[in-house]
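It is worth pausing here to work through a concrete case rather than discussing structure prediction in the abstract. The textbook approach is simple: state the sequence, then state the predicted structure, then interpret. We follow exactly that order.
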Amino acid sequence: MLTPDFTERSYVTEVVKTSGDAGSAANAVLDLCYGPHSKVDSELSGFKTTYAHGRFASAREFSRVRRFISEGEKRTIELPRRVRIGGKTNFLYDVILAWEGSHLVIAAPFHSMAEELFPSIDQKLAGTKILYERLDITRMVIKLGPTGSTIIRSTMSDGNVSLAVTRCHLAYVSKSKSNATIKQLQMTGANLGSSPEYQRLIKAVLNPLSSEDIVTPIVLGFSMQEDGVRKSSATTDRHGNFKLWIAPGLRQLMRLFTLLRGIEELGNVTATTTNVPILQSKSIREAEE
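Step two, the predicted structure:
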């Protein structure tokens, strides 16, 4: 069992596509971590996935909130953990990895930490022909249609499995020059497709020529649901930055690849880039799962 220090929060997540087995890339990332790390294998829906937990050492203090946990019968640990490296105090923060086939997922508990860690990982993996997988949220909105939901069939489940929009952050502006003020709207819900306001604005994305507004999706949250019960969810922005809720047991992370396979089933909604997504946008910094 992997036991991260920071749970019950959204982790910034990067999806890396490798040229071969993602295990080699994962081991290279773990080399950047401080001290020992732990691994565990799991099999879900017939697919074998490996998970790993390490800690990244940084002189920067990404979390100013002090917490204490019990480790063993008589030992109390202050979080974030502290170590002395080169005569300076460093703070330790969780790094969680998951890989399956050629895909590697890297998760960090703080956006500012990810801005330091992910470029370091990119340099570490330089020359290995990695690509970062991005979600085109405008295309995904179009694929999900006015109802904001669609049935997924390739999940190896006997239940009724669907992919649905559960969060959106939209920017919109009237095409009229007399009313060209940019407005923004944020919405959350089990299925936003049932909201008249969501349906009204999404029409401008589905049929831009016939709409009086120009609507741009900025952040999109979506979940995979089986018989109406949420199984996994994630939030992403238009630059491909992901956030994923991490709780004890890592159940959301363990279902992430099932969610990614469901997204790929939609077709033409994912793309790859050599640029580190975390450096392109900070709009997901405020997005909460």
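Step three, interpretation. The chain is about 20% helix and 40% strand. The helical segments are 22-30, 111-124, 137-144, 196-206, 251-254, 256-266.
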